[in-house]
Specification:
The protein has about 150 residues and is mostly helical. About 45% of the residues lie in helices and about 5% in strands. It has 5 helices and 2 strands; from the N terminus they run H-H-E-E-H-H-H. The protein is elongated, with a radius of gyration of 38 Å.
Length: about 150
């Protein structure tokens, strides 16, 4: 694995993700004399990232670190919408899915075969016949080849 990585590393090092994304990021933190620039606080310089007043767009994760994607500005509404969506989504999946599976048709016709067997048993008992005969087929209807025909 390491040998493969060392063979393709020169190609991977030439790929620039910032040029592929179309925006350039520059650190906005002041330079520290001890360690140089810290690249933790990056702001986009693309004009699409600014609104009409010149303010940069702030990620919902910066405003609300527990952002769930259900409401962009209010964390309380975001959390409750998430809870409701998951509760009803999972409940509906379990209830409707379980009902659907319960009412599926008889797979392999097992229930029908049992009902048919019980019906035949009652019929044979009422006619006084044995439940099972020694011959599955009626021997008088089977045509056997003569001993000379092979």
């Amino acid at each position: 694995m390491a040998s493969r990585l060392s063979r393709i590393w020169p190609t991977l090092s030439r790929v620039r993700l910032s040029s592929a994304l179309g925006s350039r990021c520059v650190s906005q933190t002041p330079k520290s004399s001890a360690s140089g620039a810290v690249a933790a606080d990056l702001q986009s310089l693309s004009p699409a990232g600014h609104d009409s007043h010149g303010h940069a767009e702030v990620s919902p994760f910066d405003k609300n670190p527990d952002f769930h994607g259900f409401h962009h500005s209010d964390p309380f509404v975001d959390e409750w919408n998430m809870r409701l969506a998951f509760f009803f989504g999972i409940s509906v999946a379990i209830v409707i899915g379980g009902t659907f599976i319960h009412y599926l048709p008889d797979h392999g016709m097992r229930q029908w075969a049992r009902r048919e067997a019980e019906r035949l048993i009652k019929q044979r008992e009422s006619e006084g016949l044995p439940l099972m005969t020694e011959n599955y087929y009626d021997p008088s209807t089977i045509v056997l080849p003569s001993s000379g025909e092979d």
